[in-house]
From TrEMBL:
Species this protein is from: Paenibacillus baimaensis
UniProt signal peptide: 1-25
Keywords: Signal
Protein name in the entry: Sugar ABC transporter substrate-binding protein
Length: 444
């Protein structure tokens, strides 16, 4: 392992490597291109005989792309082998293979804001800046600015967005109508509405959101941005600014005073689950999870769910507007041009339209303007997504290599507030801890 990799490799990964639980997949020398009958045939299938290994997460996008692969294979002459893993297994597999210098997988799904900086700093991903300029028909400018911001590391394009998401407000339309409450447009209005609808004696709670230490960080981020704060600024931690304190206080107070019992142990499945059971008036979370509230098999309020733009704070409505999943190319692949051909196809307008029709929110602005492109989403949500995409922030957690450690630091502030502790003192302590992480990564 070279020294650069050692510098950024987490201790947990070193343990994984020692266990040698996953071996890199071999990638034999591609078969020679068969002699073409004519120049036309050769031009039509320039990658005849190539084989690509593509690794995906067990994610709806991965399932949506698989039935489309025969189309790609027929067009290019390539064969594509797809391997799928659960999120944590995916990160583990990729880290072990890349650390060993494996040339496979050729292309892989990844979470830009969770692993992107680590993968790029270690030299494991191929920068794609030159590739996106090769074919004007690819129309790179069609990708939303914030989606590209999420996949950019140190000014270089480390991957191509495939799934985007924004934090939105979910609410019970019937409860607001009955109480004659307008849909909240500000965080103050949200707090007032939550108080009015909170009725724990009747098992009706005003608000719920993620309460677990690490998972809550992505969702408190929109509160932070909307109050005018951020996790960092110019390599300086900013967790204890007045704006940050206000945001952390609002989020923790809503959960402490108006959430169902057990919220400290809730990530998104539990929070959305109890909302779908009809026991909560409001929840803020990712728009990409909406089917958990509208599926009649999972939700008793499937026809009563409303969607709204994230409520504004003193800086207005500034929800995160991110790429949650992207496609990247292995820097060691022996098939770079073929790998880009796959990425270009999978993230082109036609395929994005096909996957988005199945409910996978994509990054191309033009697809959101097509009737077919929005057919997989509730009409009310489509407008919310479009409005959210106009602004927002391209990250939903601290943008550092040690993301897990940083999330625990930020989450500790909210936990203090939820348990009645001193948020200001917790924020001061967390700010120092986050600065240590930043300085360590900068070599200070």
């Amino acid at each position: 392992m070279n020294q650069k990799m050692k510098k950024w490799l987490p201790a947990s990964v070193a343990t994984i490597m020692a266990m040698s639980i996953i071996a890199g997949c071999g990638n034999g020398t591609p078969a020679p291109v068969p002699a073409a009958d004519s120049g036309k045939t050769a031009a039509a299938k320039p990658f005849e005989g190539k084989k690509l290994t593509v690794v995906t997460a067990n994610h709806p996008w991965g399932e949506a792309i698989k039935p489309l692969l025969p189309e790609f294979e027929a067009q290019t002459g390539m064969k594509v082998e797809v391997q799928s893993f659960f999120e944590d297994q995916l990160t583990q597999k990729l880290t072990v293979q890349f650390t060993s210098g494996s040339a496979t997988p050729d292309v892989f799904m990844y979470r830009p804001l969770q692993e992107g900086k680590l993968f790029y700093k270690n030299g494991w991903v191929q920068a794609l800046d030159e590739y996106v300029k090769k074919d004007a028909s690819y129309d790179f400018e069609d990708f939303t600015k914030s989606s590209i911001g999420s996949t950019t590391v140190d000014g270089k394009l480390a991957g191509i967005p495939i799934i985007t998401e924004q934090e939105i407000l979910y609410y019970r339309k019937d409860l607001l109508q009955k109480a004659n409450i307008a849909v909240p447009k500000t965080l103050d209005e949200l707090t007032a509405a939550v108080k009015k609808l909170h009725d724990p004696k009747s098992e009706m709670y005003g608000f719920v959101a993620r309460g677990q230490r690490s998972p809550l960080v992505t969702q408190v981020s929109s509160f932070l941005y909307s109050e005018g704060g951020d996790f960092t600024k110019d390599d300086k931690a900013t967790l204890n600014t007045p704006e940050a304190i206000k945001a952390f206080t609002t989020y923790s107070t809503l959960l402490k005073d108006y959430a169902p019992p057990g919220v400290l142990n809730m990530s998104w499945p539990q929070a959305l689950g109890i909302f779908a059971q009809g026991k909560v008036a409001f929840i803020t979370d990712a728009n990409s999870l909406y089917k958990n509230t509208t599926d009649p098999e999972k939700s008793v309020i499937a026809d009563k769910v409303g969607y709204a733009l994230f409520p504004g704070g003193q800086a207005g409505s500034k929800p995160y507007n991110i790429t949650s999943w992207g496609l990247a190319m292995n820097s060691k692949t022996a098939n770079k041009d073929a790998s880009w051909e796959f990425v270009k196809w999978a993230t082109g307008k036609d395929v994005v339209l096909k996957t988005q029709k199945l409910g996978n929110p994509g990054p191309r602005a033009s697809v959101w303007d097509k009737p077919d492109g929005v057919s997989g989403f509730p009409a009310e949500m489509v407008q919310v997504i479009k409005d959210s995409s106009k602004g927002g922030v391209d990250h939903d957690r601290p943008v550092v290599i040690g993301v897990g450690e940083a999330r625990d630091v930020v989450g500790s502030i909210v936990l203090q507030g939820m348990t009645g502790g001193d948020i200001k003192a917790a924020a001061d302590k967390a700010n120092q801890e986050l600065q240590v992480i930043i300085d360590k990564e900068k070599g200070k």
